[in-house]
Amino acid sequence: MSAAAGIIGPILFAIIVIALGYLWTGYDPLTQTISELGATNAPYMGIQALNFAILGILTIIFVIGLAIHNGLFRSTAIVVGMYGLGTLLVAFLPCDPGCSFRGSSVVQVAHGLDALISFIGLAIAPLLFWRSSRTASSWTKTSVWSLRVAIGSIPLLCAYLAITILASLPYTGLLQRIFFGLLFAWMIVIALRLFSLRGIRFPGSSGEDAHTTTVGSVHPSSSDNLGRSETSPKEPA
Q1: Domain coordinates in residue numbering, the chain
Q2: Quick one: 24 exposed, middle or buried, by C-beta within 10 A (0-12, 13-18, 19+)?
Q3: Who has greater pLDDT, 152 or 235?
Q4: What's the pTM?
Q5: Are 6 and 191 in contact (CB under 8 A)?
Q6: Pairs from 45-53 (Cβ < 8 Å, separation ≥ 24)
Q7: Are 175 and 159 within 8 A, CB to CB?
């Protein structure tokens, strides 16, 4: 269930974000952030708040399962869990119109701080996972993938924060979506690996196991009888 939560959460969140952005006339995903879909002036504020809450809950479920699976991943589970908790809290902290980091309302300041902490936790999670999974033989390939993601996610976060705070470029929405797209893909890869290690296979997977089972499924009594017939002496005529 925890692995499924790590797959369903990001995918469902992305679908709803795309749908709400399409339905809101005048909304520009290149220049406007995801949080603006849940701002106090957004036409679908309640739906986006629910979307934040669902992602937060599913993320927390996912990291609990990851930590239980292997104690080496507790540091990763903690920082990703911080992101999940922060996303859940954002559902109850709608930002002001425009979602500016320089907002003056108490809720806007709380929203900004919550987002900052959550983003940092999620950005460094692949790096922590790489460090802890290097010694786990069953996670070798995923460990290398995590390092590559970390090389991209940390600079992306720095660039996003610089652009947002300094308001130097208008494409904050695009940069934010690239950041989340990369890290959501990372979460899904980790969840899929967790699935495979628990023996759960998806449709279209290799049929080698089925073939092996078929070949090795000869009943013991059949082989025993065959052996007896070959070794037993012939009766005299």
Answers
A1: 2-203
A2: middle
A3: 152
A4: 0.80
A5: yes
A6: 45/94, 47/16, 47/20, 48/16, 48/17, 48/20, 49/91, 49/92, 49/94, 50/91, 51/12, 51/13, 51/16, 51/17, 51/20, 52/87, 52/88, 52/90, 52/91, 53/87, 53/88, 53/91
A7: yes
